[in-house]
């Protein structure tokens, strides 16, 4: 715009001098006055009608000079007035006005006979003004686009595109500049601890929203900051003026410990360093702030781990209490069954006295084991017959099954099935599974127990003909505390699964609606028995 004005100034003065010396002018003073008014009118004015006022003054200047060499002035003035004009309609209106005024003035002031070829005169000059509009608008758009790109590059080189704060490089540059100016300041590095987990759980859009929210909150909470920047992915840097009386530090900590986490919903850790008391260079200051941030994060992590450890201890205590109640209930159920049968039928319990005492002893052992749960102890595994364990469990459950109207059918293996086991745990496992089968069958039902073996493994199948387990619940039945029983603890099957794992076995379940449930357990056979079998086969 400045260059265009100077071109117009120079051309107007040269045009006036040429008009004065080239031919006689009616009134030289009028020429000087109109030229002066035209030059003055080129100054910036905010009046919407100013382009038409300048056009009128230029028309008077043209009429006074009596020369058609004024066409460049019309074209330059038109380009100047429409250069920054956003309205296309107004631009073309100005072009039409300029063309009409120029051609009218030129027609009456020209002494050349060729001007009377009106159609050629109008066409050529119209093309001049149309070309001026097109070239001006095109150059303006190109220059505007170039300026926007330049500003965007400058913005991207200094600011973070997401939050609008200064980026990492600009933060270092400004911090170094403040230190060179010997400005006392406080550097605060802020880390958003839960942002990575939030990105994983809820996606990056949620994380980006939190980052923008934190940026806006930092501007509000630290309104007197020298500058605020996004220091890293989930870190921010705030540089505050240093107060010699140190009254500002409690307010900083209050805002970072309470206000910011409360407003954002995520945990914040931070590190603070001051200049010049903590460091005399930029690198020393940043290193100390990062060190303090690390110490703060470590303290937060230790507190979180301590809280998790305390919660885990409480959970284990809860499982211990529930498991103890659940496991003691099994022998109590056996004793209760014998007593109910004897009372209903007038039987003498002398035949079952030893079995009842065994169950009572097992309750005592279970109680002692749970009470000493926190003490480290080693379980003594010995080789026992899985077949004998099954027979013992059937004898224990027979009274309960008879009371409920169920039958237990057992198909044993023709070969011995020695297993390296903890016999009490194995009996506990089988009792839990048989009891669950009895409770699952609402009407008179049958429990099928089948024991088989191959060269290396023993397979035990316990199957009932109850309503079965819904497919959507199959994946949950081994979870601790998951139960569909009103009085259940949800630990029975989880304890069974743990016992099978301790014996290096596998536990699988198959079920279909109205076809019952089938538990398939595999155990490795005793290595000693396999070795002895191999020796026998050699002979």
TrEMBL record:
Transmembrane segments: 6-21, 26-43, 55-79, 91-109, 115-135
CDD domains: GGDEF, HATPase, HisKA
PROSITE patterns associated with the record: GGDEF, HIS_KIN
EC numbers: 2.7.13.3
Domain of life: Bacteria
Residue ranges occupied by any GGDEF domain in the UniProt entry: 183-312
Gene3D superfamilies: 1.10.287.130, 3.30.70.270, Histidine kinase-like ATPase, C-terminal domain
Alphabetized InterPro entries for the sequence: GGDEF_dom, HATPase_C_sf, HATPase_dom, His_kinase_dom, HisK_dim/P_dom, HisK_dim/P_sf, Nucleotide_cyclase, Rev_trsase/Diguanyl_cyclase
Single Gene Ontology MF annotation: ATP binding
Keywords, ordered alphabetically: ATP-binding, Kinase, Membrane, Nucleotide-binding, Phosphoprotein, Transferase, Transmembrane, Transmembrane helix, Two-component regulatory system
Catalytic activity: ATP + protein L-histidine = ADP + protein N-phospho-L-histidine
Residue span(s) of domain Histidine kinase: 323-527
PANTHER family listed in its UniProt record: PEROXIDE STRESS-ACTIVATED HISTIDINE KINASE MAK3, SENSOR HISTIDINE KINASE
NCBIfam families reported for this sequence: GGDEF
UniProt protein name: histidine kinase
Species assigned in the record: Paenibacillus sp. SYP-B3998
Lineage: Bacteria, Bacillati, Bacillota, Bacilli, Bacillales
């Amino acid at each position: 715009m400045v260059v265009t004005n100077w071109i117009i100034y120079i051309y107007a003065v040269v045009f006036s001098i040429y008009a004065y010396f080239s031919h006689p002018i009616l009134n030289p003073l009028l020429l000087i006055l109109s030229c002066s008014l035209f030059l003055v009118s080129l100054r910036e004015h905010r009046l919407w009608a100013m382009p038409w006022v300048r056009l009128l003054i230029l028309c008077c200047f043209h009429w006074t000079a009596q020369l058609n060499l004024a066409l460049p002035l019309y074209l330059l003035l038109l380009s100047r007035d429409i250069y920054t004009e956003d309205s296309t309609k107004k631009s073309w209106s100005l072009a039409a006005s300029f063309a009409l005024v120029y051609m009218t003035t030129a027609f009456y002031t020209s002494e050349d006979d060729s001007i009377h070829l009106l159609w050629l005169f109008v066409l050529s000059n119209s093309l001049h003004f149309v070309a001026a509009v097109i070239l001006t608008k095109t150059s303006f758009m190109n220059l505007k686009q170039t300026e926007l790109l330049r500003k965007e590059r400058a913005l991207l080189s200094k600011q973070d595109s997401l939050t609008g704060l200064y980026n990492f490089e600009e933060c270092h540059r400004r911090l170094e500049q403040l230190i060179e100016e010997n400005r006392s300041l406080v550097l605060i590095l802020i880390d958003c601890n839960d942002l990575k987990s939030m990105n994983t759980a809820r996606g990056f859009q949620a994380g980006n929203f939190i980052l923008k929210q934190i940026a806006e909150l930092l501007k509000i909470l630290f309104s007197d900051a020298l500058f605020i920047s996004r220091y890293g992915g989930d870190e921010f840097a705030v540089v505050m003026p240093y107060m010699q009386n140190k009254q500002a530090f409690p307010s900083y900590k209050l805002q970072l410990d309470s206000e910011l986490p409360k407003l954002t919903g995520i945990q914040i850790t931070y590190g603070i360093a001051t200049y010049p008391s903590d460091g005399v260079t930029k690198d020393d200051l940043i290193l100390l702030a990062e060190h303090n941030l690390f110490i703060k994060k470590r303290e937060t992590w230790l507190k979180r781990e301590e809280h998790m450890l305390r919660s885990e201890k409480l959970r284990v205590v809860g499982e211990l209490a529930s498991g103890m109640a659940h496991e003691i209930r099994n022998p109590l159920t056996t004793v209760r069954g014998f007593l109910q049968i004897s009372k209903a039928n007038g039987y003498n319990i002398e035949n079952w006295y030893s079995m009842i005492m065994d169950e009572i002893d097992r309750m005592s052992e279970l109680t002692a084991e749970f009470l000493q749960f926190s003490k480290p102890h080693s379980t003594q595994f010995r080789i026992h017959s899985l077949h004998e364990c099954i027979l013992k469990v059937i004898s224990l459950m027979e009274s309960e099954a008879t009371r409920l109207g169920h039958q237990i059918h057992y198909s044993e293996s023709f070969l011995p099935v020695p297993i390296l086991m903890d016999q009490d745990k194995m009996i506990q496992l089988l009792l839990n599974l048989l009891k669950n089968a009895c409770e699952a069958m609402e009407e008179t039902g049958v429990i099928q127990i089948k024991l088989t073996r191959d060269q290396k493994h023993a397979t035990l199948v316990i199957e009932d003909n109850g309503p079965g387990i819904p497919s959507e619940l199959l994946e949950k039945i081994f979870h601790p505390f998951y139960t569909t029983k009103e009085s259940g603890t949800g630990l029975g099957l989880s304890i069974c699964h743990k016992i099978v794992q301790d014996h290096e076995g596998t536990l699988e379940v198959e079920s279909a609606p109205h076809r019952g449930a089938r538990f398939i357990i595999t155990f490795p056979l005793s290595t000693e028995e396999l070795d002895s079998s191999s020796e026998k086969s050699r002979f």
